[in-house]
Amino acid sequence: MTGVPASAAGGSSGARRAGPRGTSGAAQEPPERTASGGTAERGATEGGAAGRGGKIAAAAVNQASVWNVANLLTMLRLLLVPAFVALMLGNGGYDPAWRSFAWAAFAVAMITDLFDGHLARTYDLVTDFGKIADPIADKAIMGAALICLSALGDLPWWVTAVILGRELGITVLRFVVIRYGVIPASRGGKLKTLTQGVAVGMYVLALTGPLATLRFWVMAAAVVLTVVTGLDYVKQAIVLRRQGIAERRAALKESEA
Fold it and tell me: What gap in Å lies between CA 119 and CA 157, rounded to an integer?
């Protein structure tokens, strides 16, 4: 017995195993097998694929889920539209009490409009349902209020036509130029929305005296902002389309070269 360790006695064999792959007489080590019989390399690949698949599945579940607080607020605003119309036209449409309840429904709808988009962007709750339903709810409550007011004779029809025509026109314009980019909401647009909400809310209430005069001027400001911001959006859309066409032409020339 020499007492030489087995590792030393088998040095040549160990060297062959440790040597580079492909050298003469070198024994290539088989891939390490997992407990399930598969190789570690395949297990890592499958594990990575499973991890990616899990993330994709989780993202799909999150995207498909519409029962979040932002979408619930949007749904509430949609439900408030028929309730508002019923209250607005209740008892002939001129009862101050019914008009007060209608104003409360309109105010809640406007408040939820301020919060649902902010919550969706802040807490990553944006869904396809929200993208479609949110602008529909906005236009529905405002359109219902304007049409009711004009039908009752409280607001000239041309005011309703200008505001609704602008809103629908800009919505269509956004879809037309979306292939070139997105028209961002401007400060003027946000001010227009706020002014419209205040003006329409004042008309929904049965106001008299100085407040009735004040609401006329607030609505006038809302109409002016509606027209000015609408023209600004048209200008942005034209610029965006020209830039998009120019970029496409430049990319096409570069690819041909």
Answer: 35
162: helix, strand or coil: helix
Q: How far is CA 81 from CA 58, 72, 74, 88, in A?
A: 34, 15, 11, 10
Contact 156, 150 (CB under 8 A): yes
Crossing angle of the two packed helices 187-204 and 210-256, in degrees rounded to 10: 150
Host H or E run for residue 231 = helix 210-256
Q: What is the pLDDT of residues 174-220, one digit of tens each?
A: 888 888 887 777 788 889 989 999 999 999 998 889 999 999 999 99
Collect all residues with Cβ–Cβ distance below 8 Å to 167 and sequence separation of at least 6.
Answer: 139, 142, 143
According to DSSP, residue 156 is labeled -
Nearest C-alpha neighbor of 230 from the set 179, 181, 196, 180: 196
pLDDT in tens, 3-20: 444 443 444 334 344 444
Q: Which residue is it, tokens 């024994």?
A: 27
